[in-house]
Amino acid sequence: MVTWHLNRWSPDTCGCKFEYQWDEELAVRDRVSVWKENLRTCPDHMGLTDANLYDVVLGENQRKNITIVRIETEVPDLKETYTDPETGEPNRIRYKWQHGIDWSFSGSDDTRLLTMVIRGSVVSSSERTRINNLLRTEFGTNKVTIT
Ligand SMILES: [Zn+2]
Q1: 30 CA from centroid of ligand 1 (Å)
Q2: What is the pLDDT of residues 75-114, one digit of tens each?
Q3: SS (H, E, C) the chain
Q4: How far is the CA of 36 from the centre of ligand 1 (A)?
Q5: Distance from the CA of 16 to the center of ligand 1, in angstroms?
Q6: pTM higher than 0.85, yes or no?
Q7: How far is the CA of 97 from the centre of ligand 1 (A)?
Q8: Does position 40 have pLDDT exceeding 90, yes or no?
Q9: CA 110 to ligand 1 center in whole angstroms
Q10: What is the 54 CA–ligand 1 centroid distance (Å)?
Q11: Which residue has the higher pLDDT, 50 or 112?
Q12: pLDDT at residue 7 is higher than 90
């Protein structure tokens, strides 16, 4: 027995919109989201076929999310721990003052380049080169750049 649960997804990386579904009968850890329908194609992805739109957009979104994690791991000095002044909860994590990561995409269809900007001057040019090389190894050429 399969009970499909429908959901909609608009990524924060472009204006496309999709409907996807998963089987509610399965345990949460076994659920797999399955693409169902393209609801809207954004101007950046007009050159793609309906069949590969979802995979390309999902890939871009995951590339952005993974890259942020990689940068935060490689540049631990971006963040600090603090105690929440209202709840008193200790060891919360936030970006340090004037630090953070900005991102944007350029290009179109399946050749969009993700550009990351690390705010603040915590990353030397040799560190930047090292992280760019890590990301090139992970995603391939012309996929991610840190400026
Ligand atoms: Zn799109």
Answers
A1: 28
A2: 988 999 999 999 999 999 999 988 999 999 999 999 999 9
A3: CCCEEEEEECCCCCCCEEEEEEECCCCHHHCCCEEEEEEECCHHHCCCCHHHHHHHHHHHHHHHHHHHHHHHHHCHHHEEEECCCCCCCCCEEEECCCCEEEEEEECCHHHCEEEEEEECCCCCHHHHHHHHHHHHHHHCCCCEEEC
A4: 16
A5: 4
A6: yes
A7: 33
A8: yes
A9: 10
A10: 9
A11: 112
A12: yes
73 Cα: distance to centroid of ligand 1 (angstroms): 28
Quote the pLDDT of residue 51: 87
Candidates 4, 73, 1; CA nearest to 35 is 4
Ligand 1 centroid, distance to 45 Cα (angstroms): 5
Beginning with the edge strand found earlier in the chain, give each strand of the sheet holding 17-23 in spatial order. Answer: 4-9, 17-23, 34-40
